[in-house]
Write a structure and sequence with these properties.
By secondary structure, the protein is an alpha+beta fold. The protein contains nine helices and five strands. The protein has a five-stranded antiparallel sheet with strand order 3-2-1-4-5.
Length: 205
């Protein structure tokens, strides 16, 4: 089991990053909430991971802190919810925001997450209620060793930022039409791809 990576961040193309540890480059898929917290390229980062082995692939999911990873592991235990949907949930909202939705039976917000229909949303609310009854919100969910919140603009090419943001939304489960419409509604030339993704996700919830 690979539980933690510490190394140099080489690539960051949401929702995937490439981090080099001891001369080995690990491809890690991360929710947007964690990608927002990554340092700049060529800087050291620490990522907490969840390793998934399938017949056709070995996948590594990464998180900014143990709290996000814990919630991810709880969510994917729900019947009908796999890692891809868990990733979409944590890309659309923070761990504490999701817990708040569960505590308040906020079905309306949950069904707006790509890939979550009404039945899945209801199942999430029911099954997660007991699992999250002792969850402490407002704790260290936004902090993690090796990460500092950094959403500074890093992409000087507007067209690339727009394309990268659109591709990221499609990877998270939104249709091409939904992604194009969302990016268009919040687009500004001074925004990085991460800013565009974050604002688009907020606009769709």
């Amino acid at each position: 089991m690979i539980g933690r990576l510490r190394g140099v961040l080489l690539e960051k193309t949401a929702p995937e990053v490439l981090i080099e540890c001891g001369g080995i480059g690990y491809e890690v898929t991360m929710p947007m909430t964690s990608i927002y917290a990554l340092p700049e390229l060529n800087e050291e980062a620490i990522i907490y991971t969840h390793f998934v082995v399938r017949e056709d692939a070995q996948l590594l999911y990464g998180f900014a802190n143990k709290v996000e990873r814990k919630l991810f592991r709880l969510v994917i235990k729900v019947n009908g919810v796999g890692p891809k949907l868990g990733l979409a949930i944590l890309s659309s909202m923070s761990a504490d925001q999701f817990v708040s939705c569960v505590n308040h039976d906020d079905l309306t917000t949950i069904v707006k997450i790509p890939g979550v229909g009404k039945k899945t949303a209801e199942r999430l609310l029911i099954e997660m209620r007991d699992r999250l009854k002792d969850w402490q919100t407002g704790g260290d969910a936004s902090s993690s060793e090796g990460f500092t919140l950094n959403v500074q603009q890093t992409d000087n090419y507007v067209s690339n930022a727009k394309g990268d943001a659109t591709n990221a939304l499609v990877s998270l489960g939104y249709s091409q039409q939904q992604a194009d419409k969302a990016i268009k509604s919040i687009f500004s030339a001074d925004k990085s791809s991460e800013d565009l993704i974050r604002d688009a996700l907020k606009a769709m919830l």
